[in-house]
Design a protein that fits this description.
The chain is mostly helical. It has a single domain (about 1-115), classed as Type II secretion system (T2SS), domain F (Receptor-associated Protein, Up-down Bundle). Helices cover about 85% and strands about 0% of the residues. The chain contains seven helices and no strands. The protein has helices at about 1-10, 15-35, 40-50, 55-70, 75-80, 85-95, 100-155. It starts with a helix and ends with a helix. It is found in: Cell inner membrane.
Length: about 160
């Protein structure tokens, strides 16, 4: 399952979208739990289980272990390439200023916007391809319908 999740993240175009969705889900869930007063260790535990990706789950569990040892959340996340520097630095700032939930919400809002933009651009890319496919399919169907008529006319005329 871990290797499948690694491969999902490496698929061209879709992997990038999947990565953003996972990051948005992670930050939004953690922000909601943290804001609701759930202890941070329990929040990380629940967030890891709902992340939807084993790579992110492993990184979150490493962050939880480091947090138990007195480190910040951002330190172990910075060692994991799945978390971009922007995410790590915003989490770090949130921890230092005591506004972690606000920073997590800002990260999630940013990724939600990125996801929306990516989906819109993918939709505009897929539309012409779909029209071309439908055109070819209809063309083949029309040719298949009229081909018997042409062969009948050849036998009558020739």
């Amino acid at each position: 399952a871990y290797m499948i999740d690694v491969l999902k993240l490496k698929i061209p175009v879709i992997g990038k979208l999947y990565h953003r969705i996972c990051l948005s889900r992670f930050t939004r869930t953690l922000a909601i739990l943290f804001n609701s007063g759930v202890p941070i260790l329990d929040s990380l535990d629940m967030t890891a289980k709902t992340s939807g990706n084993k790579v992110i789950e492993k990184a979150i569990m490493e962050a939880k272990s480091s947090l138990k040892e007195g480190e910040t959340i951002a330190e172990p996340l910075s060692n994991c390439p799945i978390f971009p520097p922007m995410v790590v630095s915003m989490i770090s700032v949130g921890e230092k200023t005591g506004a972690l939930d606000q920073m997590l919400n800002k990260i999630s809002d940013y990724y939600d916007h990125e996801i929306e933009t990516t989906v819109d651009s993918l939709a505009s890319l897929i539309e012409p391809l779909l029209l071309g496919f439908l055109g070819v399919t209809i063309g083949i169907a029309v040719i298949a319908m009229y081909l018997p008529y042409f062969s009948i006319f050849e036998h009558i005329g020739g």
